[in-house]
Fold this protein.
Amino acid sequence: MNAIIHTDHGPLTVEFFEKDAPNTVANFVKLARNGFYTNLNFHRVIPDFVVQGGCPNGTGAGGPGYNIDCELQGDNQYHDRGVLSMAHAGRNTGGSQFFIVLSRDHTAHLDGNHTCFGKVTDGLDLVEKIVGGDGFRVEVVD
């Protein structure tokens, strides 16, 4: 299963890590199919680190109204460039906010702490163009 994140700069194709993070992928897909990720924005952009979105109020303080557990085992739990990972305020507090890794240089400390659940396979160059406040929506492709 894949998704397309439609950004202000063009589409990002995402391949999910269903084997390594099945519950996180299922949560993201459910939210996307229910329209949760329609017309949201990237509220946090840190060059050479991450681009973050998924907050319904655009501030980084919101979520879907529930938490999901972290899934930190598996072969794909490394925060390399282009990886999608769940943002959270502490272990097992993720919900809807996610980030896209811009560089491996400053993300090793995230390994084993945040669930990697997918990777941008096409359009990665567009992620570098995202600035705070840029909009997006997510479309799931079976």
Observations:
- The first helix runs from residue 22 to 33.
- The chain is about 10% helix and 30% strand.
- Residues 11 and 69 are 29 Å apart (CA to CA).
- The helical segments are 22-33, 124-127.
